[in-house]
Model the fold of this input.
Amino acid sequence: MIRYLLPPVIAVACAFFYFNRQEPLVEEPEPVRQSYKHIKVEVLNGCGVDGLARIVGSRLRDLGFDVMTLENADSFGFPESIVVDRIGKMSEADRVGDALGIANRIQQIIPDPFRIEGVTVIVGRDYRRLGLALTASAALNPGLQGPR
Done:
């Protein structure tokens, strides 16, 4: 009788130990983040959604940019978001535009010895296209957030 019970008992024991073994923990390396601290950015809310400049600025900071100013634009009538090169370094504006997914980019150099920012981002009414809708909704209506 033991002869018939021994193989299934051994098989169950082997399966138990196989599936309950602890594998060594392998720490994944931290992703290497590109630092863009040398790119100074101004973020302007051009659509009137409360707190949107702060949300975009926070995203840019998370991506490594140096966000200097968060304000409202002169008008809330911007239908599309735009990235403006202010100091003649279009490559910096391109990096900011690529980071946010904004294709509209212009160069507008006005000599100003007091200007610190080299790039201006004006967030328009197309902010949902930038993937900010969920973030903006959650930030503006914290009670509506789902389970984490």
